[in-house]
Write a structure and sequence with these properties.
single chain; Aspartate Aminotransferase, domain 2; alpha/beta; Aspartate Aminotransferase, domain 1; four-stranded mixed β-sheet; globular; 2 domains; seven-stranded mixed β-sheet
Length: 435
């Protein structure tokens, strides 16, 4: 099967005249053979302007957890929009959602809303510095915490992950990394040594509790527990960036799944099934500084009625029947992983798949596992990008980098169709494994 993208190509040519690169986010330019343009989406499907239909494992790069245009979310948003988009004041939905978050997420005692994950991370860091009176922030090589100057540090450092903090973009202020310390994730001795030497300067330790941005890598046994105890011992605030994991891997986020409670956490993406809403939440004594301690936090669209309604509807659906949705998400994800492994083994192609199920990652490698940034960064990504393009030509859309998302709208038939396409795409690698 060969997907016709002529209309999409014309749209891209038109877009490049008015949008840098023809896209609104640089990550969308990575798609092969070209950035894609979609006319609509429903359930597990995307529809483009050329009449092609795709089974979607991009899921909006993570936010779509229930499915595209999911009816209960659509209904909630329509009702909220009919009452007004933005009041410039408070509304009851903000309180109801906050109460739901306090009930659901282990670390949250109080919460503030934003529109994007980057904003919420910036708020969490500011609160941590205000609380501790310290300046330094420990982060980890290969973790991503947003695109703002102080956040975009060492997200793609050298394959060894060593060296000073690395600015990732032209135009970043040279001072952006002045108060950032970079450690190696999943290696507790490295963090312990750093905090022993400089713990009195460290306001916060900021991390993805499951390392999703450089491969979906689970923390080693006991690692998060030890990080928690080190932060407590040194008086540093532990911040979990749950922009990806929040409401995707568990109703209580990765902290609910793994049983380790941070001081602050940031949520976005799956929180509102595609609507732009994020939050920072955590201990009352930290969050109260926003109200009484002079910590400035603002945003015109914070807690807007439409986004809040989407989040309430999303969380209600995910919590239904005791959180049965997560069993389904995990089952679908694991069936995909097992099926891809089996298809690759049958063709003599070496692949590695890791993750809890609702989100997972695929590499072309003979490594038995990947537990950190260095191993992940050393894997050649070119074969996977070609594999993703081969799947696209058969109506299966995946993120070119290697991460897969599933939604509650994916069906067993979707999995069957996907695995048949995977089998055909892998046949090309059996013939030319180093393509």
């Amino acid at each position: 099967m060969q997907v016709n993208l002529r209309s999409g190509l014309r749209l891209w040519e038109r877009a490049r005249r008015v949008l840098p690169g023809g896209v609104s986010s640089n990550v969308k330019a990575e798609e092969l053979p070209q950035p894609l343009f979609f006319s609509r989406a429903s359930g597990s499907r995307l529809y483009d302007y050329d009449g092609n239909t795709y089974i979607d494992y991009t899921c909006g790069y993570g936010p779509i957890i229930l499915g595209h245009a999911y009816p209960p979310v659509v209904a909630a948003v329509q009702q909220a929009a009919a009452r007004g988009f933005l009041f410039g004041g408070q509304h009851e939905g903000e309180i109801t959602l906050a109460e739901r978050l306090v009930e659901t997420v282990p670390c949250i005692e109080m919460v503030r809303y934003n529109s994007t994950g980057s904003e919420a991370v910036a708020a969490a860091v500011r609160v941590a510095r205000a609380y501790t009176g310290r300046s330094e922030i420990v982060r980890f090589a290969g973790h991503y915490h947003g695109w703002l100057d102080e956040q975009l540090i060492s997200t793609h450092p050298s394959v060894d992950g060593d060296g000073p903090p690395l600015l990732e973009s032209v135009g970043q202020s040279p001072s952006a990394a002045a108060h950032v310390l970079v450690a190696t994730w999943n290696e507790i001795d490295a963090l312990e040594g750093l905090l022993t030497a400089r713990g009195s300067e460290v306001a916060a330790v900021l991390m993805e509790p499951i390392m999703c941005n450089s491969g979906v890598i689970m923390p080693a046994n006991g690692y998060l527990e030890r990080v928690r105890s080190l932060c407590t011992a040194h008086g540093s605030v532990l911040i979990f960036d749950e922009v990806i994991t929040g409401f995707r891997v568990h109703l209580g986020g990765a902290q609910g799944l793994l049983g380790v409670t941070p001081d602050l956490a940031v949520f976005a993406k799956a929180m509102a099934n595609g609507f732009p809403l994020s939050c920072v939440g955590g201990r009352r004594d930290l969050m109260a500084l926003i109200a009484s301690g002079g910590v400035v936090h603002a945003g015109t669209f914070n807690g807007n009625p439409v986004g809040v309604a989407a989040a309430l509807a999303t969380i209600e659906e995910l919590a239904r029947d005791g959180g049965a949705a997560y069993g389904r998400l995990t089952s679908i994800g694991r069936r995909l992983m097992d099926g891809i492994r089996d298809a690759a083994a049958a063709k003599g192609v070496s692949v590695l798949l890791q993750g809890p199920g609702p989100v997972f990652y695929m590499w072309f490698t003979d490594l038995p596992s990947i537990r950190g940034y260095t191993s992940s960064a050393r894997v050649d990504r070119a074969p996977y990008a070609k594999f993703a393009a081969a799947l696209l030509s058969q109506g299966i859309r995946v993120i070119p980098g290697g991460r897969w998302y599933v939604s509650c709208s994916h069906t067993d038939d979707d999995v069957d169709r996907t695995l048949a396409a995977v089998d055909r795409a892998l046949a090309e690698f059996a013939q030319s494994p180093k393509a």
